[in-house]
Structure formats: structure tokens, C-alpha cells
Amino acid sequence: MLEKENPFDQDAVEMPITDELDLHTFRASDVSSLLPDYFAECRARGILAVRVVHGKGTGALREGVHRLLETLPGIASWTWPAGAQSGGWGATWVYLKAE
To answer: Domain containing 36 — which CATH number?
Structure first.
């Protein structure tokens, strides 16, 4: 389980680590700290393909996710849009480097 850093935060969220991360419940400001930790946990569990659901909306969250993906060392590649069966424009497939 991944949890936000502050255990006293009223908005703390526990979430299972799977091959899908839905960002609809997170603020854009949370993404830069959430994604590296989430991807590290995925790699530790052998999950190397993760569908990140950022939604279509205004594109601000998607753009923030994509900017961050370009800077993270553990990312092998990423694909957007995710494909018709995987969320299309509202999701990005992220492929992680093996540990």
C-alpha cells in the first residue's frame, strides 16, 4: 500500500499497488511526489507496465504527468493516447525499467 507522507493528513489515501493508477482523486500538485513512489513500488513488485489514468479534461494534469515522465530515471518509455480499449486520450501507458 502506498500512503501520502503525512500520517496526520485528513486527506491521506491508502491505495493498492496495481498496474493502474487513477489520478482522478489526486490534486495536480500531488503528482510529482506520487508518481516516483508509485512506480518504485510497481518495479519492486515486478509490475513494469502501468496505465496512468489522468482523464481528458483541460489537459493540465496530463501535461504535468508527461513532463514528469520525461524526467524520471526509471521510465523506459510511455505511450499516449493509451488506445481505445485502455482509456484513449484520458490515459497514458508507462513502461518501467526493470530493477
So the answer is: 3.30.1370.110
